[in-house]
Amino acid sequence: MRRFPAKNRQQGIALVTALLVVALATIAAVEMVSRQQLDIRRVQNVLAREQAYSYAIGAELWAMHTLKEKLEQDGPDSDHLQQAWAQPIVLPEFDGAQLQMQIYDAQARFNLNNLHDVQPGDTNNVYVQQFIRLLELAGAEDPPQIANATMDWLDPDMEERPGGAEDGTYTQLEQPYRTANQPMASVSELRLVYGMTPEIYQQIEPYIIALPAVTAVNLNTAQAGVLMGLFPGLNQQLAEQIIEQRNAREDGLTDPNELLQLLPPQSLPDNIDEAVGVSSDFYIADIRVELGPSRVRLRSLIQRSATGELRVISRSQGPL
């Protein structure tokens, strides 16, 4: 049997060892480069998103400027859909960023926080009746129960209204929690209210909002579902006819009675005057920014004070 010299065997082992070291070094280098490239892409994405968000904040300032122009040109007495602020706005492309913005009237919806100060037993309260009708339209089986539970969620005390719910009810749930006992910061809180279901919430969500003050519904901007909640007996067809007549007015409504007189007398609840108006103090700027791979959607709630000053009171981000 032929044997290789010891020197040759040592050289072979050294060669294999060298190849193994080179292979390990190559694997390590590839891994380092891959991680570095991943880190670079991650940083680029973060920077692009931050830049897109900065553009969204710039668009928010544009929205406030648009509302200020509206106030200077048209005054504060009427806000309607024929005015410039209510039209879709495509902002100029800037540094590769595409920006779109739409300003909505936040008072086109029913304000859940109008229920905050309703006293127990005041079942004829105009806001309570509006909310109950909206729940009926959403398909709720027991609208008064959900309405009472919502008022219990909002009011500062721990006394349950008929069919309502306070901490004693919520802490017995499989996943317990407590009532807020304060005005809602977001309509999404309604999903936590006892008796509310995902199906009802999905139906009612387009018609409700949570604002930090008691507000009237702007008849110039309210859609059919909101009008049907405002006025008992109003059906979809009649509501759409009223909206068509309203939108045909170039100057919008200047007085709520201009719309109320189109309704049958039985559709006018008591104290309706305090629940409706033709102007607004709250607006939503819905801003969308696309910058490379980054997509940002910013929804800013803007308040107009009695002196005409504008300020952003909340911001939220969500998917496009």
From TrEMBL:
UniProt-listed Pfam families: T2SSK, T2SSK_1st
KW Cell membrane (keyword) present: yes
Gene Ontology biological process: protein secretion
Record's subcellular location: Cell inner membrane
Ranges annotated as spanning the membrane: none
Domain of life: Bacteria
Cellular compartments per GO CC: plasma membrane
Residue ranges of domain T2SS protein K second SAM-like in the record: 217-278
Keywords for this protein: Cell inner membrane, Cell membrane, Membrane, Protein transport, Transmembrane, Transmembrane helix, Transport
This protein's record includes keyword Membrane: yes
Recorded family membership: Belongs to the GSP K family.
Database matches in PANTHER family: TYPE II SECRETION SYSTEM PROTEIN K (PTHR38831), TYPE II SECRETION SYSTEM PROTEIN K-RELATED (PTHR38831:SF1)
Protein name (Swiss-Prot/TrEMBL): Type II secretion system protein K
